[in-house]
Amino acid sequence: MTARGRVFRFREWRVQPESGPFGFSMECVVCDQYGPEEESSESALGWVFAHLRANPEHHAYRERITRPYRAVPGGWL
Ligand SMILES: [Zn+2]
User: How many whole angstroms from 20 Cα to the centroid of ligand 1?
Assistant: First the structure.
């Protein structure tokens, strides 16, 4: 395929989980604010208690877990 003078080739890709640390953060469902990403779920809870002290009417939270992935190039098509 040619566009603006460049040649593009199609390639197969695979996306897979990668070894590496997960990230944990907590989000307030009431106001959508969220705390910093931490290395453990327990550490992420610290933000909830601080947020609750400042916003005593915010009782619903969600844990956000991030996991590293990598796109691995395959063969050319
Ligand atoms: Zn909140």
Answer: 30
